[in-house]
From TrEMBL:
Residues 77-331 form the AB hydrolase-1 domain. One of its GO terms (cellular component) is membrane. Belongs to the peptidase S33 family. The active site is at 154 (nucleophile), 298, 324 (proton donor). Keywords: Hydrolase. The keyword Acyltransferase does not apply. This is Proline iminopeptidase. GO terms for molecular function: monoacylglycerol lipase activity; peptidase activity. One of its GO terms (biological process) is acylglycerol catabolic process.
Length: 350
């Protein structure tokens, strides 16, 4: 009798095990999971990826702000913001695109920018200082030639080119976003191409204000914001600009900005320290894989940026349909080009 019962139970178990599982049944999750957002057991776990990195300068040691987003030992991108004196906030929509590709990226506010220490010492406001600052950040974050991509936008592009010309052996890839290799070319494009595109009466009023150097005049900012910024900085009505861009402008350090760039938005003024900056003849020295990210409506000549990609030894050019912060007004082209470049370099197909 016991034998029959046991045999019946075995047959019943076999039949039940062969019954097809309901389609809505939950399968056990794979034991393999991404470590991209795993900050456990890392030194910066308690700060959420933030590291205040000490920078040695001739005027003492100061701390700069960095924040690591994600983990990927093969693809790590350090972001150099514009200005000078801008902030990492201009890059905050990278959160919407790079994590899905598991590309690690690092926000960084340069010395005298909002989230970092502000010694407010003009003797530190040189490209030479900032190149060495980037190098100290690189070492502190353990970035190296096997994983280190450097992305510089606007003034950050100047800094990235200068860094590559001195330290390119530390790089895996270089990205220059919205910056030409010559201030003279930048000024020429602003004055000969972009300025005349403004309504005649607007341009006349702007030039009159600049002629007497009345840059603090609220009317000057009003004219630029209404007629120039919405065409060539971010091609959206001001009320549609993202909060991160408004914050970047609110947090901009005007002292370093005016000292290095000057008060005008139609090129870099003669008294500014960057007024004669030009490395166009040295682009051919850059051998590391390089992406030039230009934009049709940028303050920088997109054709000149395409030419820059032919001057470096191993270049590629992508031109978006956006403006100076084209990561916001043409993100599809911008991030597609950026991600493809990083992955092509990573897998050796570039």
């Amino acid at each position: 009798m016991k034998t029959k019962i046991i045999l019946t139970l075995v047959i019943l178990f076999f039949i039940l095990s062969c019954v097809e599982k309901p389609k809505n049944s939950v399968e056990p999750q794979s034991t393999k999971k991404s470590s991209y957002f795993d900050y456990s057991n890392s030194d910066d776990q308690v700060t959420g990826g933030i590291n205040m990195i000490p920078i040695d300068t001739k005027k003492g040691t100061f701390n700069v702000y960095t924040k690591r987003m994600g983990n990927n030992p093969k693809m790590r991108v350090l972001l150099l913001h514009g200005g000078p004196g801008g902030t990492h906030e201009a890059f905050e929509n990278f959160d919407g695109y790079l994590p899905n590709e598991e590309i690690e990226y690092i926000y960084y506010d340069q010395l005298d920018s909002y989230y970092s220490d502000k010694p407010n010492d003009p003797s530190l406001w040189t490209t030479e200082h900032f190149v060495e600052e980037v190098e100290q950040v690189r070492k502190a974050l353990n970035l190296n030639k096997d994983n280190f991509y450097l992305l510089g936008q606007s003034w950050g592009g100047i800094l990235a080119m200068e860094y590559a010309l001195k330290y390119q052996d530390n790089l895996k890839g270089l990205i220059i976003s919205n910056m030409v290799a010559s201030v003279a070319e930048y000024n020429k494009y602003a004055q000969e191409v972009l300025g005349p595109q403004l309504p005649e009466e607007v341009l006349k009023e702007i030039k009159a204000i600049e002629a007497i150097k009345d840059y603090a005049n609220p009317r000057y900012e009003e004219l630029l914001m209404t007629h120039y910024y919405t065409e060539h900085i971010l091609r959206k009505p001001l009320e549609e600009w993202p909060k991160s861009i408004h914050l970047m402008f609110e947090h901009l350090n005007p002292n370093i900005y005016i000292y290095m760039q000057g008060p005008s938005e139609f090129g870099i003024t003669d008294e500014a320290t960057l007024s004669d900056w030009d490395v166009s003849d040295r682009l051919k020295e850059i051998k590391v894989p390089t992406l030039m990210l230009g934009a049709t409506y940028d303050t920088m000549d997109p054709k000149y940026m395409e030419w820059m990609a032919t001057e470096v030894q191993n270049g590629r050019s992508v031109t978006t349909n956006g403006s100076h912060v084209s990561q916001f007004d043409d993100p599809e082209t911008y991030f597609t080009g950026l991600i493809q470049f990083i992955k092509d370099v990573d897998n050796g197909s570039f």
